[in-house]
Every structure is written in structure tokens, then in C-alpha cells.
């Protein structure tokens, strides 16, 4: 098995290559506008440096969202184009589930994990998963306030992380069951690939033609500031 994974859910992009022996290559670039400009370069570099060509791939995986509208569109369209060109299966992985996999191995099984992606103002994209990466609360857009997650915090220790977690820290930091990670946890193709390997083994593939990114909410364009000419 040789599987290429892509993540462009937020600012920047990352690419990972997994084989039967595990992770073979991983490149991450977190700079503005790096998704569209550098993604194809990182993909080619990952495969070539591992001693393969794109034709050797058995499947292509992508982080499907939630996240940046533009970033998701770039990642998904690139992955779909590659699947079309190479006639390879297409795998889509929830971005938040992949983020949780970065953190959960470092905590005991009695913790819950809440990855968060900033969605502007006091809104975040969030999900809650247990130590086995099983969903406890489904992925949704949440406007944070003092009552958010209180039902879980009453009986569970919850770890909050991701670039949206800073918004909820002032709200929950006095709760003894709320834990925050000081290190920034970004979406990564490395854990997208780990989950994609399991999907590949189960034969869980997406239809390339009909698949759409998991935007979670409609893309909102700002109102036009163009002034109508006086009559």
C-alpha cells in the first residue's frame, strides 16, 4: 500500500506519504497562500524522495473539513484531479478527527478531546472525541459562551486545542475539568494519513465526481461597497 494524504484545511498545507511500514514522508508549510502555490510541489517531493512516482500510489486522501473555504476547495480539487488523472481511489477524512489523533495518545483513556478551528468572532468548528477517536459530540459550528460544553465538563475531563481553543480558555479555565494545550495544534496530513490507511483497508472510498468538501456552513461573501450612481 502507498497512500498520499493532503491537508489544506487552514492556513498553509501539509502532505504525507504512508506505506506498509508506516509514515514514509511528511512535509508541512505554514505560510500565507502556501496551499495553492506549493501543494503540488510538496506532493511530488514527498513521493520522489521516498523513491516512488505518483503512478505508484494506491490511493489519495484529503482532509475534507471543516476549515477554510478556500483552503478546502484547493485541497479537495487537487486530490480529485490527481485521482482522475491516475485512476486511483479517493478517501476523505474529517479534519477535526485527524487533529484529535495528534493529541489523544498523550493522555489517559478517561479524557475527552475537543479540537477547535477558528471560524471568526466567537464561533468555532468543533467536535468531541474519546481516547479511541470515537465521536462523542458531532462536528458542528458553535458560538462560544459560558454554557458551551458544560454538560460534558460536569462529568469529564476535556482537552481543548486548535487555533479556536484560545477563544474558550477565558470561559472555561476556572473549571478543573477543562485542560488547554499551550502548543499550537494544527491540522496535519500525517494524522489524516493514519486514518486514511484504516479507510483504505476497509475499502471506504468516496465518489470522486460527486464529492464536495465539508464546509459545515455556507460561504459568506462580504457585502459590496460599490456605491450606486446617483439618478
UniProtKB/TrEMBL annotation:
Classification via NCBIfam families: T6A_YeaZ
InterPro entries reported for this sequence: ATPase_NBD, Gcp-like_dom, T6A_TsaB
Domain Gcp-like: 33-127
GO term, biological process aspect, one: tRNA threonylcarbamoyladenosine modification
Pfam families with a match to the protein in the record: TsaD
GO CC aspect terms: cytosol
CDD domains cross-referenced by the UniProt entry: ASKHA_NBD_TsaB (cd24032)
Name the UniProt record assigns to this protein: tRNA threonylcarbamoyladenosine biosynthesis protein TsaB
Amino acid at each position: 500500500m502507498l497512500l498520499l494524504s493532503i491537508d489544506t484545511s487552514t492556513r498553509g498545507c501539509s502532505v504525507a506519504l504512508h506505506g506498509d511500514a508506516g509514515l514514509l514522508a511528511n512535509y508541512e508549510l505554514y505560510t500565507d497562500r502556501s496551499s495553492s502555490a506549493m501543494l503540488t510541489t510538496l506532493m511530488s517531493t514527498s513521493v520522489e524522495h521516498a523513491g516512488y512516482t505518483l503512478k505508484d500510489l494506491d490511493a489519495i486522501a484529503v482532509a475534507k473539513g471543516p476549515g477554510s473555504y478556500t483552503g478546502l476547495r484547493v485541497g479537495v480539487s487537487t486530490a480529485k484531479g490527481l485521482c482522475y488523472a491516475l485512476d486511483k481511489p479517493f478517501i476523505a477524512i474529517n479534519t477535526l478527527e485527524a487533529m484529535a489523533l495528534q493529541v489523544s495518545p498523550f493522555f489517559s483513556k478517561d479524557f475527552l478531546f475537543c479540537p477547535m478551528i477558528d471560524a471568526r468572532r466567537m464561533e468555532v468548528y468543533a467536535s468531541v472525541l474519546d481516547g479511541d477517536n470515537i465521536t462523542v459530540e458531532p462536528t458542528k459550528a458553535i458560538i462560544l459562551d459560558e454554557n458551551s460544553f458544560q454538560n460534558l465538563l460536569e462529568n469529564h475531563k476535556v482537552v481543548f486545542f486548535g487555533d479556536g481553543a484560545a477563544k474558550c480558555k477565558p470561559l472555561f479555565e476556572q473549571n478543573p475539568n477543562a485542560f488547554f494545550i499551550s502548543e499550537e495544534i494544527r491540522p496535519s496530513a500525517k494524522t489524516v494519513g493514519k486514518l486514511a490507511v484504516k479507510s483504505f483497508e476497509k475499502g471506504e472510498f468516496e465518489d470522486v465526481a460527486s464529492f464536495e468538501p465539508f464546509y459545515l456552513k455556507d460561504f459568506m461573501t462580504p457585502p459590496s461597497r460599490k456605491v450606486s450612481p446617483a439618478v
